[in-house]
Amino acid sequence: MSTVQGPLAFPSGREYQEALQNTAVCFRDHDLRGARPQTNKLGLPRPISGQFASVFSLTSAAGRRYALKCFTSHVRDQQDRYEAISNKLSGIDPGSLSQPWRIGFDYVPDGILVNGSRFPVLKMDWVEAVTLSNWLDHHYTDSAAVRGLAERFAQLTTDLAAHDIAHGDLQHGNLLVAQDGTFRLVDYDGMFVPALDGRHSTERGHRNYQSPARGDDDFDGTLDHFSNWVIYLALHAVAADPSLWTRLHEPDGEYLLLTEDDFKNPAGSVRLRTLLGHTDSTVRGLAEQIKILAWQPLSLVPRLSVAAASTPGTHIPGPRTGAGRRPDWLDGHVTATVSDAGVSATPPASLPRRYAHRRSADVLLGLLLPLALLTPSALALSELITPLVTALSYGGTLGVTAFTTRATRGTRPETKILRAHLSQLREKRRATLGPVREADQLQRERQEFDASETARRSRLTAAQTKLERSHEKAVKTAEKKKVQDQQAIDRSIASLAGERRTALDRALTSHRKVFIDGALGKARLHAKELTGIGPSLVQTLAAHGVRTAADFTGITLVSAGGRYNNVTGLINTADGRRLDIKGIGEARARTLDAWRARQYDRVSSRAPSSLPAARRQSIEADFARREADLSRRRLATETTVRTAREEAGKQLRSGLARLSGEDQLAARHASQQRQQFAQRARQLGDPHSRLTAVEAEIAAARRSARALSSLRYLRFALTGR
Predict the structure, then answer these.
(1) Among the listed ranges 128-142, 481-495, 571-585, 666-680, which one has the minimum average pLDDT value?
(2) In the prediction, which pLDDT does 245 show?
């Protein structure tokens, strides 16, 4: 029996299910040994299967219920991670938490026996609670309860941030709601704690709750920031408008209100558009925040701000570069009125929104304008002026008026301020376009890099799987040959008993024959014992080699044919001849055969019924040697298969070590590349938000420009208003 130490093939959920049918054998843990698993309709342990594990419910003999997580794939440094997570969580004072969201667990490296090997398990306290989505299915119409749950979720995120913890996969299935309306947080596989700083993430979390920009290099206290906004938006939106749950959420859907597609394509998202256009201002603000943050690096996604998010009309602060400072290259290009990430649709208070204080030029234009327009009309009344001249007069007057109006309006301070402001905004826009293109390029590079890393890791996993399968095949082949050889040897050993009995029987038969043949050789033919056979016929028999009962074995009667159908008696000698002796007819032949039978019966009754001890011991020793040889051959098959397993294991370890070395080298290069990406992202800040802000200001300035149009100026010149 072995304990899994490396990335060998882990059991499937079905294999765990089979092992859990006998908990007295598969467990060493005192609480789990003999525990009763929850079963399905077929009476088999009921699994809750996930991507990397199967979870079973077990009740100990003492009546305590546990959730047992059985892993179906290998996670590198899994035990170290769980030890770090356990140390961090166990060190938190329960009184400092807003609610009892922690779940007790023990990582047991050799927790369960499956197919002759021991595998790690996670032994967790069972929680009587329902998933967040299930809770919403039953309570979405209770706005007060949903609003309270939203605030408790915000408090949970505050707890995690206060201890520099990130769950890594916040989603409806890992957020359980207890009967008292507080949260329980489960599935700590991808959790970040400070002791794990510098490592990579083992997963990317549920796709419907994660930023599309999340990569394998993202593994720090910011992991949950985007998920927090997504979940809080859903809870607040359902509290504000319960109909959103039935309108935007599908039954049994793997999301709350928004999905991965909504984050990747905000412009084409019906769900997001519904939230952006909602009557509740906080819902609109939260939806706008998610739209802005969807493609931001996680390091730039801000923490969930409950105060800002829950106050209607309050601006939610966006991410900033470094410690709140804009990049050096932006200094001189962005004024203090534009936030690095905020979006303002309100023009600066200094922008003029109307003309004021007419100057002498404005007054003069106001006096001349009616005169200029009336003069052609007066001319038109004169019969001396042709219509053509009148039209030309009107055209000229209007042209001069338009030119004069434009020239005079252009000298107005309001127009100059607006023109200067628009010029400055266009310059800011041009200065921002370059960083935006760089940010887009960086995003593409990161996506390509993540794709290449995913492909590399897939190749690594495939290579590891190939090695493992090759190892498994070699071991199975060796085991199969061992079983075949042992079965053949066992058959040979089993047949030895029958062969031994046969050999002993044959030896005894031979031993008795020697005794009987010797005794028969001493029984000589005498005429007085043979009725009808005289001395001369005895001598004739002797002349043909028949002197004793041992010299012949019996007779054969042969019909001679002829008129009288005579029968001749042939004597069968011990050496295989048949003698036709003159004077030996049927009657005399029968006499000889009867005499020999009497002699045989006499001596056979005295023949030994058992072998001599030496002869028997010799046969027994021969078979003992043969059995010992077969036993040695059987034992050698164990040595052979053990050698084959060791050789296969050596090849597997060597191959895995090679792959691990290649992976570590590639991981170092990848880490350097990620650091470069992060550095470039920090230098760029959030140019998309800056561009959005500038565009908003340009739009606001253009709205101000409409208030200072030529028609507005003409009205001002004429009326002073």
Answers:
(1) 666-680
(2) 96
Residue of 188, 20, 217, 27 whose CA lies nearest to 101:
188
CB atoms within 10 A of CB 276: 17
Question: Where are any strands of DSSP class E within 517-658?
Answer: 552-561, 566-573, 578-579
Highest mean pLDDT pick, 12-16, 213-217, 500-504: 500-504
Torsions phi, psi for 687 (to 5 deg): -65, -30
Q: How far is CA 404 from CA 365, 369, 399, 401, 516, in A?
A: 8, 10, 8, 5, 158
Which has more confidence, 170 or 308? 170
Provide mean pLDDT across the span 499-518.
94
Contact 256, 133 (CB under 8 A): yes
Task: Return the closest-CA partner of residue 707 out of 428, 351, 386.
Answer: 351
* Residue 174 near residue 223, CB atoms below 8 Å: no
CA end-to-end span of the chain, whole Å?
A: 97
Contact 648, 478 (CB under 8 A): yes
**Can you tell me the distance from the alpha carbon of 500 to that of 318, in angstroms, rounded to the nearest whole number?**
94
pLDDT, tens digit, for every residue of 457-470?
Answer: 788 888 888 888 88
State how far the Cα of 298 lies from the Cα of 192, in Å rounded to an integer. Answer: 14
Distance (Å) of CA 719 to CA 124, 579, 638, 716: 82, 168, 112, 5
Inter-residue contact 175 to 227 (CB < 8 Å): no
C-alpha distances in angstroms, 110 versus 20, 74, 270, 649? 15, 14, 50, 19
CA distance 102 to 105: 9
- Mean of pLDDT values over 489-502: 93
- The values of phi and psi at residue 129, to 5°, are -160, 170
**Do β-strands 65-71 and 117-125 pair in parallel, antiparallel, or remain unpaired?**
antiparallel
DSSP letters for 153-194: HHHHHHHHHHTT-B-S--STTTEEEETTS-EEE---TT-B-G
Which has more confidence, 285 or 381? 285
* Number of CB atoms found within 10 A of residue 721's CB: 10
Six-digit token pair at 659? 């792959």
Question: Residue holding tokens 């079905």?
Answer: 14
At CA 394, angle to CA 389 and CA 399, rounded to 5? 125
Q: 95: burial class by Cβ within 10 Å (0-12, 13-18, 19+)?
A: exposed
Dist CA 659 CA 464 (whole Å):
8
CA-based angle 208:142:160, to the nearest 5?
45
Task: Convert the pLDDT of each residue in 71-92 to its tens digit.
Answer: 988 777 888 899 999 999 999 9
Under 8 Å between Cβ of 229 and 289: yes
Please list the alpha-helical segments (H only) found in 220-279.
225-240, 243-248, 260-264, 270-276
The sign of the CA dihedral 503, 508, 511, 517 is negative
Is 79 within 8 Å of 122 (Cβ atoms)?
A: no
- pLDDT by residue (tens digit) across 381-432? 555 555 655 555 555 555 555 656 666 666 777 777 777 888 888 888 888 8
**Backbone angles phi and psi of 123, in degrees to 5:** -100, 115
Check: CB of residue 576 under 8 Å from CB of residue 550.
no
pLDDT tens-digit profile of 214-255?
887 788 999 999 999 999 999 999 999 999 999 999 988 999
**Res 385: pLDDT:** 54
**For the chain, how big is the Rg over CA atoms in Å?**
53
